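hey can u check if this looks right to u? its 905 residues, i copy pasted from the old doc so theres a chance i mangled smth
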Amino acid sequence: MAGDLRALFSTNDRQVGTDEAFTNRQTQWEAVAAVLAEHVRRTGEAVFDVEDLEAPRRNVLVFHGVGGIGKTTLSRKLEASFASSEDRPAQWPPHTWPTGRVLPVRIDLARSANTDFERVVLTIRLALAQLGRPLPAFDLALRRYWEHHHPGEPLEEFLRRGGLASRFGKALPQQMQSALGDVAQALLLPGSVGTAVGQVTGSLVRALRDRRQSVRALAGCARLADLLEAEPDLDALSYYPHLLAWELAQLPADKTVTPVILLDAFEETGDRTHRDLEQLLQRVVWLMPNAFFVITGRSRLQWADEALQGQLDWTGPTAWPGLADHTLPHARTATAGVRARQILIGDFSPEDCDDYLARRLTSAGQPLIGQELREVITARSHGLPLHLDLSVMRFLEIRRTGRTPQPADFDHDFPALIARTLSDLTPDERHVLRSVSLLDAFDLALATQAASTTHDAPALRLLERPFVQQNPFGLWPFHLHALIRSALRTADDASDDRWSPRDWQQAAERAFAALGEQWTTSTAPGRMVLIGCLRQGLTLARDFRLDLGWLTQAAWTYVSDSVWEPLAAAAQHDRPDDHLETAADALVEMLSALARRQHEHRERTADRLTAVVDTGRLPDELHEMAVYYLAKAQRDLGRSAASRRGMQLVADGDGRLAPAARRGLAHLARSAGDFPTALATARTLGWAGRHHRIEGDVWWPHGDMDRAAAAYEAARTEAEENGVAGERATSQAQRAFTLAFTDPARADDELDLAEQLLAGLDLRATTLTTKIAALARDAGTTTEVEDRAHSLRTDINVAGLASVEATLELTLCFHHAIRDDHEGIAASIGRLRELTSSGDYAYYTDIAHFMADRHSPTDPGSPAQWLDGEHATRTRWNSLVTARREHLRATRVRPRGTRQSLGRG
């Protein structure tokens, strides 16, 4: 049993195999390989000058991401892969540079590693000791520094005590002593003096200044004398890497090496106020242009930000081309171009998560964590490796109790995620972070208002953290990593500044108010702000039992355009009706039902709205909305009596929806065949009651398609003038439907316009109307019409739109009548009788007979009150059929029907 020690010591089962599994990250390896290959080519060019201190630096690659994303594991795997091809993960392709030309050295900057700048410099030099030769320029400077700062403490003892000797061997002290002796000999100093670094360096400086031939090997290092003369303090030590770079440049061609220096946990070097260590490390990177640095940390490097001038030595995009690109969204892009040098490490894919869990714990060669559990953990993790690791520990913890872990055991948030996330944030940043965790998405203004801070700085700093992800095309561009947001909201927070329930409630109230302010003050066009604020505001109001406030007006604005964008972010479809405990619960359910009715059977819509009405939780004006739309759903289901009661109740209340309710009563009168009442009511409704559309709905059953089309055009024009997109599309679809009976060519154009107006809207019934109109346009031409009608019938049944199905069947009657198809018209009339058995739209059966110019001795007809009598209506419908036959004859498309004529019965 080998591998992960934590797992090893978490179980007594010696059959369990553990493996600190490493999953993929192939794209990051490809980025490193590509950029390193370019670096090696550039440093190998004759024009490359290691002592050029003004040239831009392209020798750094940054990987940043949230805590627990796998940055340290990546750093370790990179080191191992450069050290030995046998340790390279199988997923990674072989590198293309010669073996032995790359020398990796990884430096952990985490606090737990206790790494100070002195150890950083020593670690780099110790790694280069593998070259087997002294580096005299650097070694003399380092020896002088060491004796000044560590008098009486041998370097060898320090390295042994700090563990560096065991890691890199003991060659450095001997190499330093050899360098000292060689220089003393070159200067013809006495042997006893050769051990006194002060005298050696003093003599060497004089020799360099005098350009003596004896020190020509070191004379090429133009800044050596200055560094040896400088006070040997920590600041001077930070410039010594320049000497290392110079020494590396002097190596023979067959000994050339490229150090790959991996600096991990870079976020531990300080903060925005204290950049002392960062400044020293930046000097190392700048002064060693022939070394390649891979930096991993939580945040991107800010070295290309000109605002840091004065805090760091080299800043701005000119000094650090590539770092100015901030974030490379996809690591693969780095293989194509070399400018981008900052790569955000993304989450694991579901496949990688499953692979990680399957290989992490095994028994007899098989995954110990079963497939079902792996799927649950993967879904919960949102791809964060730290969550996977914590879930593995939880699996072993549950297993130790003797119980078999179940999927429900992993519906769990880990406090450790909070600790890792908050560890390097300031108190103000923590406050903003918790505040925005209440929001699905946010911008700077929303974050600042939700946190109620007096200045933007904490929010600005937070926006640069890798767990704050960005979608530049969203209404609010920022959102938290899903798992971190979930942990902040639900996990037990043991931090010192954790929030109480009252703190969370107050934050929710602030966020809710901020959303309302954004909605009321926004100048953004369209409904984007409305929908975004509604989704987030409804969720906050529901979860924290807030008063509805601005949501009431927002709900009215939402329904006014009849667009019905989904409000899924606020909906809870599996929530039982008896949990509608607050006004916010009821409003969420009502608006969700209205949006979902375009995708659900009207029976489901009616049930949901009935539950909302029955609670009585909504204020009166919103209660009226629920009653009205319930009545509409009941009308669509053919429940005319119940619909009439609801519409009358709303109409009598004389509220906002009273005109719409009166329109609903006119529709009910029309469906019952009471055309005089429907028309008279329409003429009293005005724009608010959509009077022109009601008139069109009255005229087309009479076969007066031109008058109906003109009414629908007037309705569309009014909708355009009032900016109501849904009504405009509905009126145009009805206009296309009526013209499809009279002029197929013109109907083509009208249908195209209807489809354009429907783009971006969610109007199922109107969409079905356009498809029925297309059937009417093609009536009499091919048998494909019947196949399309069959498919449409299925869609209509799924939607639960009884009246639309009757209209489809009537259109199919038109098709059969044109084709002189006796069997087809008889079958359609039979279906129409069944569909209109409740009495609603019973006159459709009359129209079907009118089309075929026939009477049925067994059908007494409907009680329809035709405006100008049955005979005139019969004549118009029969004329429509005759005109279509002549049109088809003229275009040489002959109807193919049965031989039996559809004469008068």
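Residues 686-890 form a domain with the Serine Threonine Protein Phosphatase 5, Tetratricopeptide repeat fold (CATH 1.25.40).
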